[in-house]
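#lab-general

N.A. 3:47 PM
ok so I finally got the sequence cleaned up, no stray characters, all 309 residues accounted for. can someone with queue access submit it? mine expired

B.Y. 3:52 PM
send it over

N.A. 3:53 PM
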Amino acid sequence: MSVCVVGHSNPDTDSVAAAIAYAHYLKATGTDAVACMQIEADKLNPESTTVLKNFGLAAPQTMMDAAGKKVALVDFSDIGQAPANIKDAEVVAIVDHHKIGDITTNNPIVFNAQPVGCTCTVLYEMFKNNNVALPKDIAGAMLSAILSDTVNFKSPTCTAPDKAAVAALKDIAGVADTDALFMEMLKAKSSIDGIPMKDLVFRDYKDFDMNGKKVGIGQLELATLEQVAGIRADLYKALEDLKKDGRHSVLFMLTDVVKEGTDLLVVSDEPAVIEQAFGGKIAGNSMWIDGMMSRKKQTVPPLQKVFGC
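B.Y. 4:20 PM
back already:
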């Protein structure tokens, strides 16, 4: 039985590239594997679609149900971000760069989670340390994922190993200008024209269990907040609708990559708790948080603290 390598729901570029890269790594080291993702190919976000096209890679196959399968997880280890029936699957490996989640296994597994900015950085080190050849096209996708996850090294999640991986991967992939590559991805990622509100909300969205309370956090990275000026009301309405589906709060990060900060849209049963988490005041339905770039490092931890996680 092939191992299905799959990233989190609403996959971003790291989740997609990591699935492709780890499936190749497993096959190169003697384990049959296939790259998967929890979405139909035609629903994949614009940035990831652009990356796959740039480097001539096929999208991972769709896998929404894990029952009865052998699976390797990349870029997550939370049940809430897993395919359906993950408890009825055999998890054989996890490669990640987030906090350890709530997925458990009955047997020892390969588990490699490191405090770096991107899962593809962890995978690059696995390729390098085990002398596994890295194809040019997969190196390009991994390079793109690291640039995306670290916001071209601007994110506080960025580490020295991320920068070292980019330096090596750009040579393997034959990419001369990583700044230009990042800007091309940002242009695709921040494209909103004609996109339904629900699709924008779920473009980069995750649910979290905050001490028994379900909190959703989405993010849209933009070159300027003016890009969403005309749709803010509709976007907020979509967040309100999402909250009605059993969530305590829904937060949406409108991240201005140039100004290096986030306008945080807030829909919550307890707005004061959200204000406490970030030390600010909600004006209207949002609050500006200077320097906030990372959901993983700057949004989730303060929330976990106030929710008593």
